[in-house]
């Protein structure tokens, strides 16, 4: 079974930057998409970035501030978060889907506060 391990979360001031990483425990065959989701207290989990088939996509709430990238050789996906806001505070989860399976990480807390 593949495990996804996120890292890089923590406390950051408004306007600051943070880079999240998500590493897979082994190579994953047939990846369709890799993505980052987040869930704030009392809210539903929402998509914040997706990469796959040569494209990336972001919701309006993070477009221009967040960037998703991947390093296939390292089985890792990244989320660069710039100009963060208080409303970006949430637990961030990475997600990988293949033709037959999907995998979630355990989540990493991001807190934006002065």
Fill in the keyword field for this structure.
single chain; 114 residues; mainly beta; four-stranded antiparallel β-sheet; 11 strands
What does this molecule look like?
By secondary structure, this protein is an all-beta fold. It contains no helices and 11 strands. It has strands spanning 4-7, 10-12, 18-24, 31-39, 46-52, 55-57, 66-71, 76-81, 90-98, 102-104, 108-112. Strands 2, 4, 5, 6, 9, 10 and 11 form a 7-stranded mixed β-sheet that branches. Strands 1-3-8-7 form a 4-stranded antiparallel β-sheet, with no helix packed on it. The radius of gyration is 13 Å and the shape is globular.
Q: What fraction of the residues are assigned to beta strands by DSSP?
A: over 45%
Overall number of strands: 11
Distance between the termini: 40 Å
Question: What fraction, in percent, of the residue positions are helical?
Answer: under 10%
| Low-pLDDT residue spans | none
What form results from the Cα inertia axes?
globular
Give average pLDDT, whole number.
95
Rg value: 13 Å
Q: Topology as H/E string?
A: EEEEEEEEEEE
Which structural category fits the helices and strands? mainly beta
Report the major sheet: 7 strands, mixed
How many helical elements? Answer: 0
